[in-house]
Amino acid sequence: MKLKIAVTLLSLIFIVLARSELIQAAQENQLSYPLAQKTTAQETSPSNCESPQGCIEDSPRNPEDKNTPTIVSPKNYSTLESDRPEFSWYAVEGATNYIVRLVYSGSSEGIGERTIEAKTVTPDEKGVITIDYPFNPSLQPGKDYKLTVETDLSNSKVGITVFKVRSL
To answer: Rounded CA gap, 91 and 153, in Å?
Structure first.
């Protein structure tokens, strides 16, 4: 019983910390999409989708903002099984580099930072770039992380996601 209460409490703390980071990022204009997005049936209809970047129903990217490397995976607030997950985001036209940073959520303590040259990665048909986990050591089970991806373009915003790795 005590373990269940502790797990529930830790989950609530994680959600509050992650939400506060997203709110802060939104206030600093670093998110490429609103925290709460309202859509109409017409916007989500597959027959209305002609975008090569995908539709609202299968894409978190704001179609108005092509200057943000919106993170596709891991999904925000997700719990991962793998300690070495793939990272993916939408390509930004004109970017020559993507800066990928991973820190412990709620902390400035970094796991790592990698610069990925745009010419070394090929976006898929939806414009999504996917890379293998680029850091050592592997992610730790039960820990919360924040992943950011930014470009070298001056008018680009930062893609942000918060996730954790399932405890053993």
So the answer is: 12
Beta bridge partners, 110, equal 103
Query: Which ranges of the chain have pLDDT less than 50?
Result: 7, 14, 16, 18, 22-23, 25-58
Q: Which pLDDT does position 61 carry in this prediction?
A: 64
User: 138: which DSSP letter?
Assistant: P
Alpha-helical (H) ranges within the chain are 2-27, 41-44
Tell me what pLDDT residue 1 has.
66
Cα–Cα distance measured from residue 157 to residue 57, given in angstroms and rounded to the nearest whole number: 22
**Residue-wise over 126-162: b if at least 16 C-beta within 10 A, else e?**
bbbbebeeebeeebeeeebbbbbbbbebeebbbbbbb
The 3-state DSSP class for residue 7 equals helix
- Which residues face 137 on adjacent strands? none
Whether 57 contacts 146, CB under 8 Å:
no
Q: What is the pLDDT of residue 106?
A: 84
- Alpha-carbon dihedral 62, 68, 74, 79, rounded to 10 degrees: -70
- Tell me, what's the pLDDT at 151? 95
How many Cβ atoms are within 10 Å of 10's Cβ, its own excluded? 14
Q: In this predicted structure, what is the pLDDT of residue 73?
A: 94
